[in-house]
Structures are given as C-alpha cells and as structure tokens.
Design brief:
disordered N terminus; two-stranded antiparallel sheet; homodimer; DNA-binding; mainly alpha
DNA sequence: AGTAATTTGTGCGTATGTATG
DNA sequence: CCATACATACGCACAAATTAC
C-alpha cells in the first residue's frame, strides 16, 4: 500500500530542509522494501501523502536523488529505482575540469594519474585471469585502431572499449564503472588540446605494446607499456601548461 | 548585470526537460564568468528572468546542481558556486552498498579492491616524496592507534587521517578526495560486520608495518604491507558471505 | 486508430522561515 | 528590535508524455 512512514512530524520538529527529509524517507523506503534497479516507486502524489509534504518538496527531493542516479524519472510513466551509476562523478569531475582547465589542465593531469595507477595495478592482476577469447578481443580492437589511425581518423569509441576490455576479467563492476567514468571525463575535458593524426598512430602502437605485454604474461613489461601509453597525453598537458 | 543568456527559446524548441536546460545555463554562466568556489550566483528570481523559466524549474535545476556540489545553497543568504567535492560519489556508492549489502557485501569488497590498488600504486610513488615531517606524522598516528587499540577503543578518525597523510605528498587533490570518498563508503557500509577489539590491535600492527616499509624506502615491502593491511577486512567480508 | 486515464512537467501566487544589517 | 532580502514550502491549474483500453 506504499506506506512509507507513519510518523507525521508536522510542525513539531525541524531537523533540516523538507526535501532532505523526504529524500531520506525515499531512500529508507527503497532499502526497507529491498527494491532493485528498475522497480517502480509510488507516484508523486502518493509520496506526498505518505510523507506529509507538498508536491514541490517531493519533486525537489526526487530530483536530488535522480541526480545521484538513485532514482530514475520517466516522464508520463513514473519514478523507478535508478541504477546508481557514476554519472554524478562524471558530471562533477567534468565540470571541475572545465572550470579549472582551458589553460591549466591540472585536473586532467590528476585524472590521468589515477587512470594509470588503476590500470597498472589491476591489469597486472588481470593477466592471470585472461583467456584466449579476451586476448583475441583486445588484439582485434588494436587492429581496428591501427586501421582507423592509418586513415587519419580518430578512434575514441575503440579506445574506450579497449580499456574496459582490459579490466573486464576482474569481475569487478566498480572498477569497470570507474574506468568508464574517468575515460569519459578525459574525453570531455581533453578535446581542448587537439590530438594530431600522427599522435594517433603512436597511440595505436602503445595499445599494441599493451596487448603484447599481456600476451607475454609479463607484469613488469605491462606496467611500462601502460606508462608509455599515457606519455603522449602527459606531454600534451605539459605543452598546454607551458604555453 | 547577471545576464545569463539573451536567447528566449520559449515555445519553439523542446530539447528536454526545462530544468535540464536551466541547469546547463547555470553551468555555462559559471564557466563563462570564470567563477570560483564560494562566488555568489544570481538570486532565484534573477535566474528566472535570465533564462525565462519559472521558480519551480529553476529551483529543481539548482537542487540537481547542489546534489553534485556544483552549487551550494545557503538558506536565507543566497546561492554560491560549490566546491565540487565527491560527496555525490559517496552518496551513490554508499547507497549501492547498503542496498546490495547486509549479507552480500560484494560492493564493499569492490571498494576494498580499489582502495588497495590505489594505495599500492601511489604510496610506492610517494615514498620518494616523503620528508621527515611526513614520516613523523605517520608514526605519531600509528602511536595513537596502538594507544586506542590497547584501551579497546576504535580509531576510525585516526585511520582516516593516516590514509590521507599517506597520499598527501603526491600533491594530487583528486587522489586525496578519492581516498576520502572510498574511506567514507567503507566506514558507512562496513559497520554491519562488527570489528572485534583484537582485530583492532592487529590493524594497528598492520599500519605500523606500512610506516616501517615507508621508512625503509622499500616499495615491494610497502606493497605487501598494504595488502596485509586489507587482509582482515577481506576476511570479515568472506566470513559474512559464508554465513 | 484513437480516445481517455494516469503520471510527470511547468508556471504562478502566497505565506513562512532565516540571515544580514 | 526592526526592516530588508532571500530561500523555503505549499497548493493549485494546466501542459506534455506515456500507457491502456
């Protein structure tokens, strides 16, 4: 019957903003009922009655939760439990990068540091978990990179797929989503420093070196290959800082 | 002044929800005027006039941005540029952990994986950047841990300070905030599996081993010390999964 | 196919609480 | 203590999107 809480709390207590109270109630409702992503939530009017708040307050609370991807709102359909992606991290970091960036790019440099550290540490672990299918997929992706680079075209999506594929065998959702998130931040913030076509050929070669190191099962070589993969981007950042 | 955009866009185009449009405008306004955290934004009514939207739409947009810490609202005072912290990441991950957790705790395990990988990779780099003051601070924090552990008390805050101190010399804000964020997620989600007093003594010893490895300037030893530091938590998670 | 019902989106007015001076 | 400016909350009416009949 979509009962959220029997407590009236109307006029007596004032712990904080109304919307925060409502947002907390909605989160508790999801936890208490063990709802999973995609499950429907009560309608806005039902939520109003349940928590004893106006529709404006409920809507603001829902918008906060939707920004965190805790709930997902579909116009004319209803409100549902969200998938709790890291879109909020991407939004926040991207904006920080754009604001602090333009000439500076120190935020971008920090993102590169984190990406490199995660890949160096985790890909080394992933080596032992890779099977032939994974290695073939990685190699095919680099083939595609080289093909596109030879045509002078960029290969953003292939690059994204490669780095996700590298982390896939770990079976860790959080790592995959962090990889995706940091990749997106870099893809959005970095275009300000343009990549030259010859850089792309080099980048494709660096990915090939990573695949080779993986195939050889050599962790140390893999670490240096990953470090060299990020070298061009670091150089671009340094160049931008100098100017 | 406070002119955000002259475009009316009223009635003709409908790309998406109104609040999304308004949120984008506000972000563009911050970027265009190169505002820094703490700087004031136009009042709600001024924003309404500037973008040609109602109070409701503006308020919902502001609430979304405040959830991402892109803006900060102070009741009765005004709206200001936020500090773009990673609170949104903490909120989202914490809720995911609480929802998926209780018995499972696989999200918590993923967080531990990421923390360990980052610390192993970055602390090894930080070794060369540490000065005597840092080493003394780290040692003093472990002293405090041992003191509290001997009294049977917990030392959450000291632990937090320790892991931040370890990353401090890198001079990378993002890494510090990620460290803080993941620590908070673990601190909020983990209490469901209770820590025994004897575990705390062991944990204090593991931190001592980390400091010793840092003092010795031995990266390999540091990696194993960090791995052993997380061993008790992993054991607790495994114990919870078994039951 | 189309109409009605349901649900979220938007706009507006007003009253209240809160911080600043 | 008062006055001003601002955010907060509430309620209603209507628009737009989706679903179901």
């Amino acid at each position: 019957m979509t009962t959220i809480d029997a407590t009236p709390l109307r006029g007596t207590e004032r712990p904080g903003p109304r919307r925060q109270e409502v947002a907390t109630r909605i989160k508790e409702y999801i936890l208490r009922n063990r709802l999973k992503p995609g499950n429907p939530l009560p309608t806005e009017v039902e939520l109003c009655e349940a928590v004893g708040a106006s529709r404006s307050s409920v809507r603001e609370a829902v918008k906060i939760l939707s920004a965190l991807d805790i709930v997902e709102v579909r116009h004319g359909h209803g409100t549902f439990v969200g998938r709790m992606s890291l879109n909020a991290l991407v939004e926040s970091l991207t904006f920080r990068g754009l604001l602090s960036g333009e000439e500076d790019h120190h935020v971008l440099g920090q993102v590169v540091d984190v990406r490199q550290t995660l890949e160096q540490g985790l890909a080394a672990e992933a080596i032992g978990l890779l099977d032939d299918a994974h290695r073939a997929d990685l190699s095919a992706l680099v083939d595609e990179m080289e093909r596109l680079a030879a045509q002078g075209r960029d290969f953003l999506e292939v690059d994204r797929a490669f780095h996700l594929k590298l982390m896939e065998p770990l079976g860790n959702d959080l790592i995959l989503q962090l990889t995706e998130a940091f990749w997106q931040v870099q893809a959005i913030v970095a275009p300000t420093l343009r990549t030259e076509p010859e850089d792309r050929v080099i980048t494709a070669q660096r990915h090939r070196a990573i695949v080779d190191a993986v195939a050889a099962g050599d962790p140390a070589r893999l670490r240096t290959a990953i470090a060299e993969h990020y070298a061009p981007i670091r150089a671009s950042i340094a160049r931008a800082v100098r100017s």
